[in-house]
Amino acid sequence: MTGSTRQQKVGKLIQKEMSDIFLRDRRGLLENAFLSIVEVRVSPDLGVAKIYLSMMLAKDKKGLLEKINDHKKEFRKLLGDKVGKQLRIVPEIIFYLDEVEENAQKLDEVIKNLNIPPEDKNS
């Protein structure tokens, strides 16, 4: 995580509170998907928070991300209710799908499928 100490503290606060909001998903928006917040990156002016989500047990990850983005204003309102006393301005939130795990699995498959000839002992 990069940025100033203040950015990091605000990012951790948003990560904790948004995790709690997703955990208490009362409307069933997440469709029984296991969702975790991998990282929160906050802009230097603390006006924008980029939230990276990891989704397990979700059949349609991109569709679920769109649904979450459609309700972004509601999530920001809930976040504001929780952090309103600690932050002067509740940042705009942008949700991204964290694809690190999927990319790592693809890379593992590529490595497993490599055909590496045995080393020539004469060389």
**Total discrete domains:** 1
Query: pLDDT average, as an integer?
Result: 84
What percent of residues are in strands? 15-25%
Order of helices and strands: HEEHHEH
Rg over CA atoms, rounded to whole Å, is 19 Å
> Biggest β-sheet, characterized?
3 strands, mixed
State the CATH superfamily name: K homology (KH) domain
CATH topology: GMP Synthetase, Chain A, domain 3
Tell me the helix content: 40-55%
**Individual helix count:** 4
Assembly type of the chains comes to: single chain
Tell me what you see in this structure:
The protein is of the alpha+beta class. The chain has a single domain, classed as 2-Layer Sandwich (GMP Synthetase, Chain A, domain 3), CATH 3.30.300.20. Helices cover 44% and strands 20% of the residues. It has four helices and three strands. Strands 1-2-3 form a three-stranded mixed sheet, with helices on one face. Strand 1 and strand 2 form a beta hairpin. Helix 1 packs across helix 3. The mean pLDDT is 84.
